[in-house]
Structures are given as C-alpha cells and as structure tokens.
Amino acid sequence: MDIQLGYKLLRDHPVPIRPKLIALGIGAPVVGLVEILQLPLESVFALILPVVGVAGDIVFDGAEAVIGTTLIATLLLPYLAPASVVQQNPLPEQPHKQKVTIGFGVG
User: Fold this and answer.
1) What is residue 80's three-state secondary structure?
2) How far does the chain reach from its first CA to its final CA, in angstroms?
3) Which of 76, 79, 89, 101 would disulfide-bridge 23, Cβ 3.0–4.6 Å?
4) Is 27 a member of any domain?
5) Would you say residue 98 lies in a domain?
C-alpha cells in the first residue's frame, strides 16, 4: 500500500471522479465506526472535564473525520483507479542509500 501514490492519484485530474468518490465513501463509514467505538471513552472525558472535554472532543472528532477519511481513501485509491492511470503516475524514484559497513568487512 503506497500512501504517496494514493494521495497523488487523489489530487490528479485524469483520475475519474467515481473511484475517488468510492474511496472516500468507503473511508467515511470506517471512520464513523471508529467514532462509535470511541463514544464510551469520550463520554468519560466529557464528564471528568466538562468544558475542555467537550470542546476537545469536537475538535479531535472533526480532525479525525477529515484526516481518517482521506488516509483511508489514499490507501484504497491505487486499487480502485484504472490501471492505465495508475501506471501513468509513477512516483519519483527515491535516491539510493549508500551501504555503510561498520567494522571489518570480509570480502
């Protein structure tokens, strides 16, 4: 799973809108399910810290909804986008790292 390629495809204009919407449509319910699972813990924090807990919960839930949905969509989009479009969008090659040996090399 390549997050960089998925994000590049999400922002790329030649990628059709349908795979993008499908990826975002899968990501939103997954994040919603995670939110539902967090409700008991969030309610405890809201009771312990009434003002700060509720305000922090709203901020974190909003950020989690946007970031989580986008993250899941970037993971899924390389598999949902047409193969011809994915092959046209290669990522730049990473520079090769030099191999460093410590100690005495047996050659």
Assistant:
1) helix
2) 37
3) 76
4) yes
5) no
